Each structure stands twice: as C-alpha cells, then as structure tokens.
Amino acid sequence: MDSDDSVTDPNPHHPDPSLDAEPATVEQMGSLTLGEAGDAAGAERPVGNGFLPADFYAAAGEIEVVEEGSPVSGDLAGPSSLGGPGACRERSGRGDALPSPSSSGYAGERGSSGGSSEIEEADDRETMLDDWSRGKRHPDEDDGSVSWRKRKKHFFILSNSGKPIYSRYGDEHKLAGFSATLQAIISFVENSGDRLKFIRAGKHQVVFLVKVPIYLVCISCTEEPYEALKRQLELIYGQMLLILTKSVNRCFEKNPKYDMTPLLRGTDAVFSSLIHAFSWFVFSNPKPKALVIWNPATFLNAYTCLPLSYSTRQAASAILQDVADSGVLFALLMCKNKVVSLVGTQKASLHPDDMLLLSNFIMSSESFRTSESFSPICLPRYNPMVFLYAYVHFLDVDTYLTLLTTSSDSFYHLKDCRIRIETVLVKSNVLSEVQRSMLDGGLRVEDLPLESSLRSRSLTTPELSSSQSGIGGPSGLWHFMYRSIYLDQYVSSEFSSPISSSSQQKRLFRAYQRLYASMHDNGTGPHKTQFRRDEDFVLLCWITQDFELYAAFDPLSDKALAIKTCNRVCQWVRDLENEIFLFGASPFSW
Amino acid sequence: MATTGNSSINAKLVLLGDMGAGKSSLVLRFVKGQFLEFQESTIGAAFFSQTLAVGDATVKFEIWDTAGQERYHSLAPMYYRGAAAAIIVYDISSSVGGTPLPCLHVPDA
C-alpha cells in the first residue's frame, strides 16, 4: 500500500520571511505564499489524500456521492452481477503452474502473477515483470471474483448501450452485467441533463469520462487526484483512437448494440503498458535487475529527449529533414520513450500526447521488432478521424524510426528513406552516440554545479561527482523535473541513491502527481510556487511563464537552501539546454 | 507482380487469413527458420524478403504478412495489390463448418 498520503500541509499560506535566499528570483518566488508544514513528527493526517483542501471534491464535482466506509466491492457490483454467494467464485487454481519471473515471458502469458496467489498489486511489483506486456492479466476473473474486487485500479471502456469494450482485468464478456450497471449510472445522470464526474465510496474513487458513444470509467483506491485519473482516461481513449480512429463511432450509429471488442483484439498489451506508465512500469530487459521507469509524460503534457550533444542531434535532424521534404509527414527517431529527433513537414506539429501514445503503441507491440512494418495509425490530436500510415523499423533494440505519411502506397518509398537515414546515422556515429547516452543516463543531481562559475560544463564530459555522492545532490536535492512550457518538453533527473528503491520512487511519482494537480487546480490555483514537507520528502514546485520545476529534497532540508538550489537547477538546465532539449524541429504551437 | 530479370524473379507474396491462424509463424519459419510457440499479434502488416534459388533462377520473395484482426480487413487490398501469389491460411482445428475464409472479403476490383 502507499504510504505517501502523509502530506502535512493542508494550509500552506504563511508568508515566509526567508524568501530572499536568492535575490535574483525573489519577485517570482515571493509572489506566492510559501508555507512550511509542520515537521514530520508532528504531522497530523488530514482526511482524504491531504493534498487538496477538504472542500476540493465538493467544489470540483458537480455530483458527488459519498458513501463513507462502504467497500466498493459491495456497492458497485451491479444487481445483475452477483454480490451474493457468487462473490467467492475465485478460481482456486490461479496460482498453479506459474512460471518464474525469469522465464521467457511468453510462458508468462495468460495472466500469471509471478507466483503468488496473493491479490497482487498490493504493489504490483514482481507481478508485471513478466506479464505486463503480454496481454491481459487474469482473464479468468470477473466481477464475482474476490481477487478482481481487490484490484487497486480498474479501467473500463464501454459503449453507451452498456456493452463492454475493454477491461484491464477479467474477461470483457463476463463483465457485461457490470458494464450495464456502469452505463445505467452514467445515463441516469446524463438523462437529467447533468454530467457525472466522479463518485467517492470509502477509499475508492470512481471517475467517469463520457465520449459519446464511448464511456470510460476508472475505479481506483490509489488516492490519485481526480484530475490525474481523468487525464489517464483521456489517454486511454486516445490510445483507442490511435488504433481505430473516431470513425468507429459510425458502427454505433448503424447499430447501437454493436460489439466493439473484436476490433481491439490483440491490443491488450498496448493498454496494459499505457496503464503501467501512469504509475510506473518495470522493464526486465535488458538488465536482470528490475529497473523502474515511470513516465511523467502521462501527466506533464510534455515529452522528453535523450541527452545528446548538439551536433549529434543536429546530424540526426538534418537527415530526417531531408526525408521529410520528400513527402513524409513526420519523421520521428526515438529511443524507448525518449526523442532523439523529430521533424515535421511545414506546419504540421506533433502533440506530446500523440508521441506518448505512438511510442507506447510501438514499444508494447512485439510485432514491430520482428521486421519492418507498415501500419495504419491515427494520431488523435493531429486528426482523430483519419488513418495515417506508419512505417516503423527498429534500428537497434531500443531505437526505432517512425515515418508517418498520408499515402497508403508509399511503403517502398519509406523503406528507401529508412535505408538512407540508417546509413547516415551509422556513418555519422549518431546511433552509437544514442546507445552511449542510453547507458550513461540523464542528469544526475550529484552533478549539479556548486558554483555558477562551473556552469559551462557539458553533459558529455564526464566529471568527478561531488563528495556528496551517495546521499543525493547538494542541499539534500534528491530529484527534479523541469518542464519547458514553450518547447513542450521536460527533463527529469536520474534517481539518486536516497530514492533508489522502487517503493520510494513510486511515492515520489504519486507525490509529484498530486503536486501537479494542486498547482494546476482550477478551484484554488493556478499557483506559482509551493513548498511542502512530509515524512518522505520536501517538495518544491515553481511555475513561471517559461517553465515548471518540480523538485524533491531530503525531508530535513532547509527551505532557504532548497530555494537556492532550485535556482541553480534552473540555471543548470538552461546551460545544458542544447543537449537536453530539441530545438526548432517544428513549431510547437499548442 | 512477378518480374523476370536475367535469371532472377521478383515475386510479391501476401499471406491472408484470420488472426491466430499462423501466418506469421509460417513466414518466420520460411524467412528466418524460427518458430515461436507464442507468436505476438501482427500489427498492420510486416514486410519480409527472402531469396531462393530455383533451378537456374533466383526468386526474390517480397512477403507481406498481414494482420488478421478484423480492424485490418478493409486494408487487405492495400497489401495484396499487385501480388503474384497469395497464401490463405486458416486453422483447421477451429474453422467452423469447413469455411476456411470467413475473413476474406473479395474487393470490387
């Protein structure tokens, strides 16, 4: 379970006299009220997740149903869906014959859960190691299964006639009754001209997103803020559009009871890897040790670049531009979820969400790695109605080139383009630089320059790390994320040793997520800065017209020092911007 | 279309059939000599090439391994246009009533 709900600052509005830590930024920093929460020892735990004012939910929800203390499993199971004796129908054989996490992955298909029959996702740590990308987990469950009801986070897609389309857990067809219940709840409210945003039931939050004729529902007890869950539903909807386009709506015009599940066949891995990116996901390859990578793009509305020297990225961009001029709509070179270079023709620009959904689709579909492929793909933010055609080719294990075009018969042209690009990338050493950067990782807080005189250091010149290595960066800095608003890009530091454990990283992710939501909350915000201390971290967020900075420090850090350190981080990022951001690829005018 | 050079022939070959029938397994066996017990679903269509010596001639196959999912059916003509040969694959153990080709919608052309 998460223990990250210990935020102790329900009322962060004391003016703080120590703001003059850095004179240069006092105006910005000073324009908002910083408050320091009580220290961890004296922390009182507010009801709810604590990050939001108590009246947040009342203010945000047009409709709020609160049923304190009633477990959701009993309350949400529809009339048609048991709840009675059926509740014990869990298959007892589920834990049998499970492969070890190190087995080949393929054997892990069919919902194995890493060996334990314990209801997993108590911290789905080991479980997804071998099956997060292998299709649906626990297809034998339904809403009568105890295990199904105990899942911490469900996602459903259904049609507005109540037909199930997708469920994260369990077989969609067995969940027909449950889907019908969700549909009944939604349409009951819609019929009165109102709109259901969410329901709270004890620890659970049920979030609804209506995209007629499609309904999306999340049932979660992860204590993530409503805005975060809603955004996740939006992304799931976008992922569905990427596969099918919005013209799928026409099927429902002809036949409201249309069964859409066959259209999504074979895409479970795509959705489950997206859902894992909402919190964190585990790569078991190539290193034997589990590596936790979370994807802040799911809530930051930005993408991130692989750090590369300016000239290397320029070389990649030049050859992509060359190709784009020959009738390619977008040429995108990525390494895992990081952009190496991106070029679009003329005024076309690629939205960060489309990049996130496209890279998730490509990375989670094993088929793309087997050979070059040519597939219809829709970019929902670019045009949700039409298919583009994507030529996808993996240049090495992690690096892939995607060429998007509007013409369905340009495969051979794109294949030629790819051969040209690949030749240039290999010759100019771009590919080897990419691989090196992948190994080296990104910014490390330990490398934060101590003095402004050291600013001009380059990322690519290895340096001695400070004497503080092993305990994070200077002034107790543990981690930061910097988002350039103008560029729609973010850069995130590597995890320093104090947050090397996956549970600590997950706590940090959730803390950032809530910090983001509270900073962008329409009811009380937007805010410019926030300083917050709890038993896990000191968190500092600073938003200006140009950037957003999120930083995590040792919980005992001094506030004035933390503010000073944030200024240094911003300066450092600006000094390195040519290496960590992509400039001038295309106009990002969103 | 099969084009004949001196003694080399280019031939476009397309595989069609419902999902799970075994199209990708056949192609992978033919092109790479591999067989995976659990073959992931193909997305869109995957392109392979394989060159074979047949007597004096060399045949270069350009192979389109199409995805069998329903959502891709309307795109099949895009892949089989101009093909010299098509292999229609079906699963003898699951085909109902001996209709091997429920997926194949012959286009107007």
From TrEMBL, chain A:
It holds the Pfam family Fuz_longin_2. Belongs to the MON1/SAND family. Residues 1-52, 69-146 are annotated as: Disordered. This is Vacuolar fusion protein MON1 homolog. Residues 153-274 form the FUZ/MON1/HPS1 first Longin domain. It comes from Musa balbisiana. Residues 476-575 form the FUZ/MON1/HPS1 third Longin domain. Residues 125-140 have a biased composition (Basic and acidic residues). PANTHER family: SAND PROTEIN-RELATED, VACUOLAR FUSION PROTEIN MON1 HOMOLOG. Plays an important role in membrane trafficking through the secretory apparatus. GO terms for biological process: protein targeting to vacuole; vesicle-mediated transport. It comes from the Eukaryota. Residues 327-420 form the FUZ/MON1/HPS1 second Longin domain.
From TrEMBL, chain B:
InterPro entries: P-loop_NTPase, Small_GTP-bd, Small_GTPase. It holds the Pfam family Ras. It comes from the Eukaryota. Keywords: GTP-binding, Nucleotide-binding. GO terms for molecular function: GTP binding; GTPase activity. SMART domains: RAB. The keyword Transcription does not apply. PROSITE patterns: RAB (PS51419). The keyword Transmembrane helix does not apply. NCBIfam families: small_GTP. This is Uncharacterized protein.
